[in-house]
Amino acid sequence: MSGSVSKTSIVGPVMFKNIQKRNISSGVRALLNHGKPQNPVYNAELTMKIEPIQRTGESIDVKRARLVYQSRKRGILESDLLLSRFAKKYLSQFSEEELDEYDKLLDEPDWDIYYWATKNYDVTPLPDKWKDSKILKLLQEDAKNKEKVILRMPEL
Predict the structure, then answer these.
(1) pLDDT in tens, 133-148
(2) Domains, the chain, with CATH or none
């Protein structure tokens, strides 16, 4: 009683008689689509890049405070730990140009920053614009955790 079983099915006002069981679903699907073929399956990837807010007139102290906050509140624990520790250690020493570069780095997606900091370029290749970055090199050195300390969120 496999595929040759006759059935009577009612779908809306239409009645199908003597249709093999295995064909009902495709026939009903075609009927419900008014005879049109199914939407094709797209194997496409959608990426969106939201432009960062351009801040003007921000004092250097306000910028440092904002960067500390943005380093701590990334949304991914791994990035939070790396960046908050890095910010605590280095932000007070950075010049305005270095703060601008770090600000641009924080505009990148969290996982990209994490993989670049840990030099895992197989997962996320390093873009050319970051290859000569002094800030990223410093972050990569800090991410090595040569002191082997347990990473915790630093005190504010």
Answers:
(1) 999 999 999 999 888 8
(2) 1-46 (no CATH), 60-143 (1.10.150.250)
Our CA dihedral for 122, 125, 130, 135, rounded to 10 degrees, sits at -30
Tokens of 145: 């955790």
C-alpha 39/C-alpha 52 separation (Å) is 36
Q: Is 138 exposed, middle or buried (0-12, 13-18, 19+ CB in 10 A)?
A: middle
Per DSSP, 142 falls in state H
Q: Which amino acid is at 110?
A: D
Instruction: Please state whether the predicted TM-score (pTM) of the whole model is above 0.85.
Output: no
- Measured in whole angstroms, the distance separating CA 84 from the mean position of its chain's CA atoms is 19
Radius of gyration of the chain (CA): 28
Q: What are phi and psi of 65, to 5 degrees?
A: -60, -40
